[in-house]
Amino acid sequence: MNKKEELINDIQNLLNSYDGIHKTSINSSLLEFMDEATLISIIDSLLTQKENSKESNIEWLEKFKKNNN
């Protein structure tokens, strides 16, 4: 497996790591025209989105805890 294929698999795995989301399968030929830097940028964007989502959930949970005490 080459580096590009690994990056495409990483993108697919990140997309499938969200709870409640249907399994995503990416046709690698759709992303093959992108260079490695672009694929890495997509991965970075997905990781940032995932982190922001977690932070938002933690903030909501903290507010919920305060309101119930």
List the helices and strands and how they pair.
Elements: H1 3-15, H2 28-31, H3 36-67
Helix pairs in contact: 1-3
Describe the structure.
This protein is mainly α. It has three helices and no strands. α1 (about 5-15) runs parallel beside α3. It starts with a helix and ends with a helix. The mean pLDDT is about 85.
Uncertain runs: none
Number of strands: 0
Largest sheet: none
Question: What's the total helix number?
Answer: 3
Topology as a string of helices (H) and strands (E)? HHH
User: What is the residue-mean pLDDT, rounded to a whole number?
Assistant: 83
Helix percentage: over 70%
Radius of gyration of CA atoms, rounded to a whole number:
16 Å
Please indicate the percent range of residues in DSSP E strands (runs of 2 or more). under 5%
Tell me the span between the first and last alpha carbons.
53 Å
Helix and strand composition category = mainly alpha
Which term fits the overall shape?
Answer: elongated
Tags for this entry?
0% strand; elongated; 69 residues; 3 helices; single chain; mainly alpha
Structure at a glance:
With 69 residues, the chain is an all-alpha fold. The protein contains 3 helices and no strands.
